Every structure is written in structure tokens, then in C-alpha cells.
């Protein structure tokens, strides 16, 4: 039995009135596509309407915090929750460490600056194999698709803590 993951959902949430933003980086696009699709299908399973899911992109994960800020403040102030999605895979230089840490802190802080929920849709993986498994792609080692968790977390945060 899996121990990790969101666990049992704690209430029956009706997402039919919610507006949700998804901003995804374009690096590691195959993995991103699976995560975004998993996220969208989970949102829909809570009743979020297709027309109320706004998908936008940015170049890479480093750009996610600023893109999220401007999305909320300028492009779509009507949304209830934003899910920034990125996939960082460790390479041979220090980029991974700097981007992972700074983006994580920036997203955390942004919630308090904007007073809005922001979901942590960032995979920080040591190998491509780890990232594929966490997007539910790698059949052999497949875990569940983490994008689904982010969709469920968004609905709960938007409705319970509105
Ligand atoms: N962006 C990602 O979203 N995932 C990555 O794994 C990733 N790796 C990078 C590795 C290097 C060496 C560089 C220079 C950039 C990388 N980026 C990655 C892009 C980064 O988040 C950003 O979009 C660019 O640096 C432009 O600001």
C-alpha cells in the first residue's frame, strides 16, 4: 500500500464555481504534458468546468513565480487558485540547486504577498526516470501522477480556506 500522497480527501468538494489557473513551464515538455493532463482531469472530477481552467505557459521553472504573480495580479485576477507546474531535473552544474530552492521559496512567499493559494506543482528530480515515474509515464516504475494531487490540493485550498 502506498504511504506517500495526499491521502483520503477530507470532504466532498464542489468545484463547479471555481476558476483555476495553471501556469506551466515548457522545459521537459513530455513530462509537463502528463502532469498538466493529470491535474486537469482531477480538477474536472471535482466538477471544475473546462472553461474555468485557464492554462498559460512560461519558458522554464525559474520564471514560474513571476508568471504566477502577474497572472493573478494582471492577467486573471478572477481566479481562485493557481497551480504553477514545472519539472527540474538535476544536471551536471549547480542550476538545479539554485532554481529548486529559489523557486520553492518564491512560491511559498507569494501566497502571503497575494493572500491567495498557490499550489506547489514543482518536481525536483535527481534523474529523468524519477520525473517520468512521478508523472505516471514510466510504466515499469510508475507511481501515481502527481499532477492529480495538485488538482485535488487546489480545489481543497480554494474552497476550504477561501
Ligand atoms: N527549467 C526547467 O523548468 N527545468 C530544468 O530542468 C531546467 N534546467 C536548466 C538547466 C540549465 C543549465 C539552464 C541554463 C536552465 C535550465 N532551466 C530549466 C531553464 C530555467 O528555468 C529558465 O527558464 C532559464 O534559465 C531562463 O531564465
TrEMBL record:
GO terms for cellular component: mitochondrial intermembrane space; riboflavin synthase complex. It catalyses: (2S)-2-hydroxy-3-oxobutyl phosphate + 5-amino-6-(D-ribitylamino)uracil = 6,7-dimethyl-8-(1-D-ribityl)lumazine + phosphate + 2 H2O + H(+). Its EC number is 2.5.1.78. It is an enzyme of class 2 (transferase). Gene3D superfamilies: Lumazine/riboflavin synthase. InterPro entries: LS, LS/RS, LS/RS_sf. One of its GO terms (biological process) is riboflavin biosynthetic process. Pathway: Cofactor biosynthesis; riboflavin biosynthesis; riboflavin from 2-hydroxy-3-oxobutyl phosphate and 5-amino-6-(D-ribitylamino)uracil: step 1/2. Keywords: Riboflavin biosynthesis, Transferase. GO terms for molecular function: 6,7-dimethyl-8-ribityllumazine synthase activity. The keyword Repeat does not apply. Homopentamer. Catalyzes the formation of 6,7-dimethyl-8-ribityllumazine by condensation of 5-amino-6-(D-ribitylamino)uracil with 3,4-dihydroxy-2-butanone 4-phosphate. This is the penultimate step in the biosynthesis of riboflavin. PANTHER family: 6,7-DIMETHYL-8-RIBITYLLUMAZINE SYNTHASE (PTHR21058:SF0), 6,7-DIMETHYL-8-RIBITYLLUMAZINE SYNTHASE DMRL SYNTHASE LUMAZINE SYNTHASE (PTHR21058). Belongs to the DMRL synthase family. This is 6,7-dimethyl-8-ribityllumazine synthase. It comes from Hanseniaspora uvarum.
Amino acid at each position: 500500500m502506498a504511504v506517500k500522497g495526499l491521502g483520503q480527501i477530507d470532504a466532498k468538494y464542489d468545484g463547479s464555481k471555481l476558476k483555476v489557473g495553471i501556469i506551466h513551464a515548457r522545459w521537459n515538455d513530455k513530462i509537463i504534458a502528463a502532469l498538466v493532463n493529470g491535474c486537469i482531469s482531477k480538477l474536472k472530477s471535482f466538477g471544475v468546468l473546462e472553461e474555468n481552467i485557464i492554462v498559460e505557459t512560461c519558458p522554464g521553472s525559474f520564471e514560474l513565480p513571476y508568471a504566477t504573480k502577474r497572472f493573478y495580479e494582471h492577467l486573471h485576477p478572477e481566479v481562485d487558485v493557481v497551480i504553477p507546474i514545472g519539472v527540474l531535473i538535476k544536471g551536471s552544474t549547480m542550476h538545479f540547486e539554485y532554481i529548486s530552492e529559489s523557486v520553492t521559496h518564491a512560491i511559498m512567499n507569494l501566497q502571503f504577498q497575494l493572500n491567495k493559494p498557490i499550489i506547489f506543482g514543482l518536481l525536483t528530480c535527481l534523474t529523468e526516470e524519477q520525473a517520468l515515474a512521478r508523472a505516471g509515464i514510466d510504466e515499469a516504475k510508475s507511481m501515481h501522477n502527481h499532477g492529480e494531487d495538485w488538482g485535488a490540493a487546489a480545489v481543497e485550498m480554494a474552497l476550504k480556506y477561501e
